[in-house]
Amino acid sequence: MKRSRFRFPGFILLALLVVAYIPAGAGAHELPAAQALTVYTELTVPAGFAAQGEELVLAGIAAGESDVATIRWTRVEGLLFPYWVLRLTGDSEAVPRQGLELLTANPAAGATYRTALSFDAATGALSLQVVDAATDRTVYAAGLVWEGLADALSGAGSTRAITSGRVTGVRPGYAPLGLTWQPGIRQDGSFQPSLRFERTDEVIVRVETAGPLPAGGELRLASGADGRQLASIQPEESVAELSFPASLLPVGQSELVLTYAAAGETLVQWKQPVTVGSVSARYDRPRRDSAAGILTSTVWLETASDLPELQVTVEAELYAMEWTADGRNYREVPYARLTLFDGPIDVPAGSTGLPLTVPQPPESGLYKVTFSTHLVPDVLQFDAKSSYHFATYNPAAIEPGDPYTIVVLPDTQFYAQNHPHIFLRQTEWIAAQAAERGIGLVLHMGDITNANTWEQWRVASDSMKVLDGIVPYVLAVGNHDNFPEGKANGHTTRRGDSKINAFFSVDDFPHIGGTFEPGRLENAYYTVRLGDTDYLIISLEFGPSDEAVAWADEVAAAHPDHTVILVTHTYTNTYGRRTPVGQIARHYTIGENPETTVNDGEAIWEKFVRKHPHFRFVFSGHIHSPVIPYSASVGDHGNTVYEVLMDFQSEPFGGNGWLVLWEFHPDGSIDVRTYSPYLDEFKTDVQAGFRNEFTLLPAAQELSAAP
């Protein structure tokens, strides 16, 4: 016999996991003389068959006494236990003695398998498919080219179909059962597989077979939704492509139907789900209108192509956030579910905004709102759900002559990274206490995030904006807020990398007076009036440049009737002294960047702080300390400037939720206390003469207040 050769172009398989052992049966069905035939069989595995079964013949073709090609499920004795192998066997020299192993899988007891085996002697094509009838799931499918198939079929005697089950049909003609096909698009000149398309796309369907199909065979592509014919081809090669505009398919999910027909008869059909159209839904953070008792937001529907008559439903779920003292975490309590929009709209390519209004809960508290958008037809959706926290507490009503409180938030970097509930607890407590304690301002020391990632900024933004409409706040940008994204142990190498401006805008701060760079918050100033005092708060980024320091100097000079507070990430060290000139340059690569300059605490003092008679405070973080180191320095005009370090990030959970209360009294004295809403306790550590609780005397006595 002439030696035969197999060529496998690839196959699709899906393993079955149920173990069963079945004895082989035998059956035969005479086949008509033909160069190309497709045989269909069906076999049910009897439930409860004993483990002594050795073999199942799913389908095969025999010529005379010769086994041409047979698909068998064969039991194999393994080292630990027996298992089953799906094999292709035959008497040809091209087939190994034990057959070609196709799949290791166990036939399921009680399952029915439909098998199809097709051949074309003229081309040497042989294809097969095994399907689980209950689930319509393809267990195995493959196609191959057998160059000696015609010789193998020319054995003595008639050609027969054999099976342990029953033959359910025989059709003339070859069916490419192992055909593989993949929809996609042409991108940069190459084929890119895809199951989702925009209406403007040209859909390419790539088809691969084991070899050239018989002459006269045709591949037809249709829409499963309405049967519309999309494309057809009589392929002459083993790889063929069909194409059609995606606009011929309905918007949403549907099926592509690929059919192979010969002599006017459909021999095999395949289906694949596809989706036409995609929408990205994003939501503006809701803004609280306390006077109207509502929250306002906008959902933006963004799409690459026109989507007409899209049924859009936007819902909001409200949860009351209850702090559990025992668990030291929040519990979400369902509050309300609301439909904010429901109706058909035409969504043009680009961005379409739908205004949303959410009734504000009348009870004071912390809440979470979760928006979701549902679209019909079911196009592909991205970012279809988003949650935000907001508070409904009342702001402080601080009148002239009243006491008031300024709250300092030390470095929150590890809360943003690992413990968002602690960050949220801090800002919720501030909002809840604002009216009672007269909290009129919150100052953040920087290192808002640990690695300047999108997720950490989302946490930080969500926590800080709980204060919106309740307490004004100022943010400083720390070195970690400017790291290359995701590199918490990296170094600030240049300016402008912080994502702060992607999550906070100038418009978020009604008390902002101006910025060093237009629209950027790294260096900015703010004004607020608390009690009898007008404050100018200047925020400078980590190691500010000469230009930023000069700008701050001009801002302070332009506000001679304001008491000045400088907030910058690093200025004071653990000894209560200013950081020396050159420290940043020695330890941070931004100091080596020739395109900028850096200023340490001592340089900022000399160039800026000491020159202004109305300077009162410099607040900073960055350097870990269990207490609050500070010094009382005297400016050029005899004014005392308190330079204070507040940073507890080395304590458990990234700082144990400590924040610092600066309580200003009408007599000019200031009580400083450190409190944790997370622990619900005050901090009383003492180290190197510094404390977490102390009092600064009125201005007339302030020189005696230095530690």
What do these coordinates show?
The chain is mainly beta and 707 residues long. The chain folds into four domains: 6-172, Jelly Rolls (Sandwich); 180-276, Immunoglobulin-like (Sandwich); 285-391, Immunoglobulin-like; 404-705, Purple Acid Phosphatase, chain A, domain 2. 10% of the residues lie in helices and 45% in strands. The chain contains nine helices and 47 strands. Strands 1, 2, 4, 9, 10, 11 and 13 form a seven-stranded antiparallel β-sheet that branches. Strand 35 and strand 36 form a beta hairpin. Helix 3 (420-437) packs parallel to helix 4 (454-464). The longest helix is centred in the middle third of the chain and has 18 residues, at 420-437. The radius of gyration is 38 Å and the shape is elongated. The chain starts with 5 loop residues before the first strand and ends in an 11-residue tail after the last strand.
In the CATH hierarchy, the architecture of the largest domain is 4-Layer Sandwich
The tally of strands reads 47
Tell me the number of structural domains.
Answer: 4
What class do helices, strands and sheet pairing give? mainly beta
Shape: elongated
State the end-to-end distance: 105 Å
Number of helices: 9
**Largest sheet properties:** 7 strands, antiparallel
Strand content: 35-45%
Q: What's the SSE blueprint?
A:
Layout: E1 6-7, E2 11-13, E3 28-30, E4 36-44, E5 55-63, E6 66-76, E7 83-89, E8 100-104, E9 112-120, E10 125-132, E11 137-146, H1 149-152, E12 159-162, E13 166-172, E14 180-187, E15 190-193, E16 196-197, E17 202-208, E18 218-223, E19 229-233, E20 239-245, E21 252-262, E22 265-276, E23 278-283, E24 287-289, E25 294-303, E26 307-324, E27 329-347, E28 350-359, E29 366-376, E30 380-382, E31 385-391, E32 404-409, H2 413-418, H3 420-437, E33 439-444, H4 454-464, E34 473-475, H5 500-503, E35 512-515, E36 524-530, E37 533-540, H6 546-557, E38 563-568, H7 583-587, H8 601-607, E39 615-620, E40 630-634, E41 640-645, H9 652-655, E42 659-664, E43 670-676, E44 681-682, E45 686-687, E46 690-691, E47 694-696
Parallel strand pairs: 16-22, 23-30, 32-33, 33-34, 37-38, 38-39, 39-41
Antiparallel strand pairs: 1-11, 2-11, 3-12, 4-9, 4-13, 5-6, 5-12, 6-7, 7-8, 9-10, 10-11, 14-15, 14-17, 17-20, 18-19, 18-21, 21-22, 23-25, 24-25, 25-28, 26-27, 26-29, 29-31, 32-42, 35-36, 36-37, 40-41, 42-43, 43-44, 43-47, 45-46
